[in-house]
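re: ur question from earlier - yeah i can do the single chain one, its not a big deal. heres the input i used so u can compare w yours
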Amino acid sequence: MKKIGVLLALLFALSFVSYAVAETQIDTSKIHFYMYGASSCPHCRKMKAEIPEVFGKDSLTYYELVGNEENSKLFNELYQLTGISGVPAIGIAYKGKLYAVIEGEFNVSATPLIIQDAQKNGGLILVVGGKAYLIKNQTHIQKLQTLFIEHKSVFESPGTNTNSNSSAPQSSTATGSTTSSGRKTCGPALILLLAPLPLLLRKRR
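and the output i got, formated as tokens:
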């Protein structure tokens, strides 16, 4: 009889935990991906195929860099803000808000956990060069949101500096929660072909 009581208590506890988890689950139909990529990049082609397979055919907005001057210009601005120089460069949005920017391939099925982690920490997760950062600077986050979701320049308004030297996120703290070894990207050699001048002038980290 005692064992049955313990089992019932355990089942009750598990049902409560399951309910709590269900309450915090991400609605995957409200996740959207924005990707800067190149038709010549096998990693871009892989992510371009995998994302719609997992999240549906309307879950991805793709910005081709090869032969597209506007997309290349915006990608250059992304480099100036984050140091991302390889593709794919993927922005993850939930309910219209950007929660992560990832350079390279990643396990797309982990996307809800990435969003939850960003929400829990009150910022945006940036993964670049195999390292993860938590960005809390709202101005920086808004600029990234403009580049990915609004697909507009962040350096065109009067008085802004288009020659930013920063190749690392500003006002960010390092976190290891979303890093993974063996991240696969194309570039920066490909990007040098697309936008040679700004990358030749870049400072090494």
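The radius of gyration is 20 Å. not sure if urs matches, ping me
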